[in-house]
Amino acid sequence: MNTAVLRTEFRLFRREPGAVFWIFLFPTLLLAILGSIPSFREADKSLGGLRPVDAYAPIAVLIALIMSGVQSLPQALTGHRERGVLRRMRLTPVRPSALLGAQMAVQGGVALGSALLALTVGRLAFGVTLPGQPAGYLLALLLAVAAALALGAVVSAVSRTTKIAGAIGTAVFFPMMFCAGVWLPVQEMPHTLARVVGLTPFGAAARALNEAAAGDWPGWGHLGVLAAWTVLLTAGAARWFRWE
């Protein structure tokens, strides 16, 4: 990956206050708001004895990935395509694939930074337990990042303009937020619904992160779902993506 391209894309990202807020700051802010509610700091039997604020810590992590994957990445890539940046890069020694790699590195890095911020604030402010299985948590998180970026690449591939990318991203955004457990934690979903949600990338990610947070190794089935979605979405993006 060209380091100059990476630095340039990171500077451009920093100039987008909306992206910085929604990806890096909003998940932690949401966790802080929920943690400030007294009832969210009390154990809940329906959550297996967890406090709601503990259950929402992995969800805050996933919100950053969803924001980055289906909202920010497609807008950035289609914007470059619309403005002819990718076409002009074909006349330089820098390959357009370097730009794609830089965008994924920036978006993925910021999302991981947001996850670390949410876990740190949750721990320091509300006593949220750190993942009991850190290696499994990291593995599940990295697979979730890969799936989110692959999904964003598909949205970019099928969108000719930023308006279309925004429309498709929004259409994908809300179902993925539901699957991640934003409105109803996966632990509280009816059994059949939870099984169906577990077959989606962010539903599987939520289950895997919850298991690792509780100290168990994430289920290989959930990790397998994440890996399968990453492979399928990456193949689709590679097939449909156009530089111009």
TrEMBL record:
Keywords: Antibiotic resistance, Cell membrane, Membrane, Transmembrane, Transmembrane helix, Transport. It is found in: Cell membrane; Membrane. The keyword Phosphoprotein does not apply. It comes from Streptomyces naganishii JCM 4654. Residues 18-244 form the ABC transmembrane type-2 domain. Coiled coil: none annotated. Belongs to the ABC-2 integral membrane protein family. The keyword Transmembrane helix applies. This is Transport permease protein.
